[in-house]
Amino acid sequence: MDMATFPFKVSESMASTGTSGIDLDHLLGQRFMDTDGKVFMLVKTGASCAAVRKRVFKWTSRSAYTVELATALTDQIAGVGVSDHQDTGTLASGYYLLLQRGGRATVTHGNEATNVAASGKPYLIASDDTDTGKIEGVATATLTTEAPDVVFGIYVSGTGGDDADIVCDLILARV
What we know:
Number of strands: 11
Distance between the termini: 10 Å
Helix content: under 10%
Largest sheet: 11 strands, mixed
Order of helices and strands: EEEEEEEEEEE
Mean pLDDT: 84
Shape: globular
Structural class: mainly beta
Number of domains: 1
């Protein structure tokens, strides 16, 4: 995997249009690795996002590297917003993000009441919870070439319940 220097801090996002915007389209899809071995990919929001921190993003276009918050159990996951991301409000469409795709991460649990591991569901997928970008667990995982990123992580720690933090190991860096 060819890794390059980060174009901005992982905890930030950058406008791609307007007077404050920059053009990083030539770097979209580029992967970056930090000193802890965590893997990130530069993407662009294809729709406005109500939250970034610890949220799961799906592909809206793999070829254009655009993403939005995941909303369904079968969404193909592009990556996770880091837990210390600075954008706490809505992020507009057309912003650059560095989504985490490999290494240990923290994600937000959906409204399912059981602990994803205690219930025998250690594989993480996007939740169809009314709050977008959250996760839930499944008992088995089948990784296929048709949908390689539906199962995106493996449970490490945390307890279930709406908005609970779940620590997981991401398995998206392979794609």
